[in-house]
Structures
1.
Amino acid sequence: RHPGRQHRLHAPVVSIGNIAVGGRAKSPMAELVARALMAAGERPSILSRGYARERRIETPVVVRGADAVRAGVAESGDEPLMLAEALDGAIVVVGADRARAGAVAEQLGATVHILDDGFQHLRLRRDIDIVMLHPRDLDDRVMPAGRLREPLDALSAADAIVLVDGARNDRSSSALRLANVSDAQVFTAVRRVEAPPVALAGVPAFLASGIADSGQLAQSLAAAGWMIAGERSFKDHHAYRGADVDDILRAAASAGAAFVLTTAKDAVRLRPVWRGTTPLHVAAMTLEIDGTFHEWLVERVGRAREARRREALRAGRDGARAS
């Protein structure tokens, strides 16, 4: 992946990506990694391209400084704003040029970077590559015949592979199969939907969402105890308008729902245009990962920082000899 041609930031870079189109829990993973690094004393930044932003700005946009959220959904995109609202103390910067975004984050005090959807972003040098994988990806084909962005042998460049969702047996057998294509450390993770609070348990809800796998979402919500009376699905990253809200509210009333339920990603787009008296609630979701992942991550970031320090010393000695 041509490391000599890549831009290099001062702080270590942890990339989170995938090799298939569609949702693979990259944003929940970015949040999990950020929390783990903050718990270890780091000030992480999340660098995102801001997919599906309505307002394109050439320079990097600081969605969150370490102190507060600084941008709205039009400038940031839904997932960066969702992460900015969730991660007090982290830094979130959006920009097509992730190297420039990282430089801005370092000026704000970032000590480590999380490159969101970064496995195919080859312009920026990464220290750690984490790839999110669903077990079914191992039997898929490269586009246009399938949904893979690149062939499975690209996984040889990964430092860690996280098998997310799927049945427990599928994750276990997939971990064994991965040994044939990659030497990466393999972890398993599961997305969990939190149960409704007591006040909403047994109360009919209308689900409105615009995510990659809305069908699976409805099943997961029902399994967690939410009573779904009806649902309306929109395309991923849908930019909600007032007419959409009116449509949702009419459908919710017809279904006999007492409130509208949505995801955290959808909520950052829905809240600015929400109207009426029907409450809008967010279903909380978490990503649970192997217990050893946090220790592995912190150790690898420490190794990356030490390797960078040694490279800087060598470069300094080489420069002194040349002069």
Note: The first helix runs from residue 26 to 39.
2.
Amino acid sequence: MKRTIKVGISLGDPMGIGPEVSAKALSIQLYPASFVLYGNKSSFDGACRICNLKPSFDGFNDFEKPIEALRSATLDILDGKLDLLVTAPLSKEAARVEEKDFSGHTEFLARLSSVKKATMMFVASDLKVSLVTTHIPLCEVPKRINAELLSLTIEHTNHALKNLWGIENPRIAICGINPHAGENGLFGNEEINVIHPTIHNLNSKGFNLLGPFGADTILTPARKILYDAVVSNFHDQLLPAIKSHATSVNLTLGLPFIRTSVDHGVGYDIYGKNLANPSSMIEAISLGIKLANRESH
């Protein structure tokens, strides 16, 4: 018999659509879990009134500032009070008013959890993509990619595929940085200097890594049948393709707990209009519960 998963939802920016999609997700679907919400109660109640919703949840921790709500939820899951953390969108620009070094949930949660690096993975119906780097300028990517960072991302991905999805020998495809994966140095040397040696080193230790492949072909049907997940080097390399799916979920790897999130932003332009689509939040909750149950076994 499965235990009841305790879920904490950080509602995100009170002037965004986080409270609305959370209220909708908790109103239109039942889950085998209990829920505690962290965020601005006034904003959440307003979303419920506008959308005529009566969501089901078990507790509410009221915070004026969304960063403090996120911090409290994170500390609670680190203390064992929660089994799963689900986060609604938070504007990085607005968050920096409270937390000057804030560059995203992934980095913030890694710092609070005292881990060296957390890995951002996006999960869609038939695709899993992990990122080596996240919220940095494109011009910085070649300077940041090194064997240590790439190896850690691959290790996080391999561990998740084994322990959360039950894949005994995960096949992971590695994306190149340059066009056509550098084409033997013709279009850049990052593949020769970093990616190829890292693949060789980890494969010698029992990993099952493929590539590097060019970003223009790695997601084609002929390639997708070869692997269980892809490692992408920077934020916008493959995410446009995965976010074109009907629903996808942001999953953070490398933390001492399960954290999932929606795949969209704060939606200031549709705040308070009952227009926000809750499908990604529903999927984030559903996938998170599924993975939390698997991790507990």
Note: The chain is about 40% helix and 20% strand.
3.
Amino acid sequence: MANKQSRKIAIVGGSGSVGSPTVEALLSHGIHTVTAISRSESTAIFPSGVTIKEGSYSDEEFLVEALKGQDVLILQLGFMALNSQIPLISAAAKAGVPWVIPCEYACDNRHDKLNEEIGLMVMKNKYRAQIDSLGVSSWIGIVNGPWFDWNFEKSFMGLDIKTRKAKLFDGGVKFNTSTLSKVGKSLAALLSLPDSKLSAFKNDFVYFSSFLVSQRDVFDSVLSATSTKESDWAIESESPDKAADAAKEAIQQGNRMGNVDLLFATLSRVGYGGDYEAKAIGNNFLGLEQEDFNKVVKDLVEMMEQRK
């Protein structure tokens, strides 16, 4: 990618699932100054070349001082820590940080039908509203669909490699999904763009994607990776509509896993926003290579089978 621009980038959550590949990708460009802001009690380890500033997220003086002179604040906190963004966003405004990347990293927040179905989506709106209300920083929201490798390893996609069980939704609807590595590389490439190009995404969402696949596509790739046939698996078919209803009932009964089931059932329904291919930013624009879907699946399967 030509015409890169160096930036001073602070990151919170830089040792997590999406934080680690993001930090690695930022460093790989060789032009950015990367600062990890971490709690004093944290045991997180960061690569060499990362400046570490430790303190309390409730200490505004510490946060403002840590963010002074930074061009970007990346927030990559876990779901249960989303409210920790509030003091960080406030401090970024007081420090005059031009760009804030809030915790989105989810499905299409602009798709009304999807947001009506999945209540967790709209919970993140208030953080962007906070950035807007302070009137200092601009934000970019990251849409990446479900993290492919993370969900695959946890068997959240309905495929259990160990037990050879598969629960497949009818219809074969395709949805966009991204690997954690792709999210990190895409974000790093985006933040390496010159201001003239980066400004096109000001206060808007950017769409990253590794693959546009159906659950059936994933299963077919798994069959190839495991050298198995369908007859080797216990396969259960289910309507995504019925699965969504069952997931909602589970959520009402306090079963948090119902949220995962609702997500994949909804993405597997026609017209619910799982397919955002037309909005996805191209690899050529970011200077990235296309990932090999079957290789990603095969590598994941091999890793999981080694753990047996």
Note: Residues 65 and 207 are 32 Å apart (CA to CA).
